[in-house]
Amino acid sequence: MTFGFASSSAASLSTSASAASVSRLLEPAEWAAAGIPLLRNPREVVSGLHVRHRPRPSTAIVAVLDPDERLLASASFTRRSAPADGWMFRNALLDQLRRVIPHDLRRRTPVRTAVLLYCREGDARWTEEDGAWMWGLRDACTLHGLRCGAYITLTHDGWQVLGEGRGGRHPHAHSAPESFALSESPPLMPRTGGPVSEVMRRAAAR
């Protein structure tokens, strides 16, 4: 009788933990309805993070962008081999954010945005693991005073911004990163006109 009671309690606790874990994820429709800000140039963001962190499957990259989508900070880490749980993902993301950038909790309105790129096996279709990462990203952003930005998957099919339907074939989960020279925008040409240009023109004329 004693063993039976203990076994029943353990099963009940296990069931409760499993139910709680399932509840800590977001479905694609919930994510799309959350008003996540769209990236103006998602391929540039993806390519830049791919070059900097060289992710392989099971690598998560969290990045913080300014209002002009310039990269302020980023960190990568490997996902532990454990069941997908939004609460655990939230804690891992929050730990990385605290390491690389101060919080913005004193601001009334967040001005910086956190995005998450997750490299994994499988195809581009949404999984419960993706839902747990979405839940974790949203919660980590709230606790760090940031806007919750895009969730991007990197698979053998390429990259995809979940909830938006935008994506591309390169880079993908097993592609070699491009060089910085190829991934970055070409340098801006110097503006013409003004006193500096006039001085240079006179010097050339000599």
Automatic annotation (TrEMBL):
Instruction: Look up the signal peptide feature and give its range.
Output: 1-19
Q: Which UniProt keywords apply?
A: Signal
Instruction: Region Disordered: list its residue ranges.
Output: 165-206
Protein name, as recorded:
Uncharacterized protein
